[in-house]
Design goal:
Number of domains: 3
Strand content: 15-25%
Shape: rod-shaped
Order of helices and strands: EHHEEEEEEEEHHHEHH
Number of strands: 10
Largest sheet: 4 strands, antiparallel
Structural class: alpha+beta
Length: 286
């Protein structure tokens, strides 16, 4: 595996002045020097001219990967005008933070339900040598591996779990799922010299063909949960009422009257509509 090395290069501003002076001197020598020295001056002109191709510019948050006849020679991250061996090939690699947003992928979650999912990956190159030499096209590699990691995550966890299910869910545990996604994407992109800064789901929904059915299921679950809370509260209120009536001696109720009172109170407390009082002029025994 190839790792990034610091390239040996010089200040382009200083070499610009030096080469300009040498170029003028060598050209002047061609016209003023005699015989064999004139040939040497011509060779000097050619060599200085070739040296002009050693200049290159390094932008902020950019690296220049230098190669000599296919051999990696180092990466120059020093900003400004630089000069290195004119025989070096120079490839620019951006070190800036970049975003990748996947398309909406249609996959099945851990429960087999078809869902649509998408994610945003924030990444940057930290090792230019690995990015250039370990993979064929690191930008395309980031795209494909990020989507593969997202598909694998979606099939590992359910869209939404039931109350007794202790697994993480894509919908309810967004922060934990984001950390899982970041870790998996980072594992896949490590060999490409890429650092994943953030990974989050940008879209999550049931597929259109089951969206209506799942919505009805969620509504039913919500209604049942609400009813359960109402019944628990109503039972507690009825028990408190009976205990207070007994302690304060307001009325002496036998078992049948207690049952009637409990029934009436539960109807009032658990009903969807406002209770309407009815005056009973008889008794429960007649």
């Amino acid at each position: 595996m190839v790792h990034e090395l610091e390239a040996r290069s010089g200040s382009g501003y200083f070499l610009l002045v030096v080469l300009l002076v040498l170029q003028l001197i060598s050209i002047g020598g061609v016209f003023v020097l005699p015989g064999l020295l004139k040939i040497i001056a011509v060779l000097a002109v050619v060599m200085v001219f070739i040296c002009w191709f050693g200049f290159y510019m390094v932008q902020p948050n950019q690296g220049k990967v230098l190669q000599l006849f296919g051999q990696y020679s180092g990466t120059d991250r020093t900003n400004g005008l630089r000069w290195a061996n004119p025989l070096y090939s120079k490839k620019s690699v951006s070190l800036r933070v970049r975003n990748f947003e996947s398309g909406r992928l249609k996959v099945n979650d851990a429960n087999g339900n078809p869902i649509e999912i998408a994610a945003v990956i924030v990444w940057r190159v930290v090792d230019t040598a690995e990015a250039v030499f370990e993979v064929d096209d690191y930008e395309n590699y980031v795209t494909i591996q990020s989507e593969a990691a997202l598909r694998n995550l979606a099939t590992t966890y359910p869209y939404e779990h039931d109350a007794e299910d202790e697994r993480l869910s894509l919908r309810s545990d967004a922060n934990a799922i984001a950390l899982k996604l970041k870790s998996e994407v980072q594992d896949r992109l490590q060999k490409a010299g890429v650092d994943v800064l953030e990974a989050r789901l940008s879209h999550l929904a049931y597929s259109p063909e089951i969206a209506q059915a799942m919505l009805q299921r969620q509504q039913a679950s919500a209604v049942l949960a609400a009813r359960k809370i109402i019944v628990q509260g109503a039972v507690g209120m009825v028990a408190d009422a009976l205990d207070q009536l007994k302690e304060q001696g307001v009325v002496d109720l036998d078992a049948e009257r207690k049952a009637a009172m409990v029934s009436n109170l539960l109807v009032v407390l658990c009903g969807d509509q406002q209770a309407r009082p009815v005056i009973n002029t008889g008794t429960i025994y007649s």
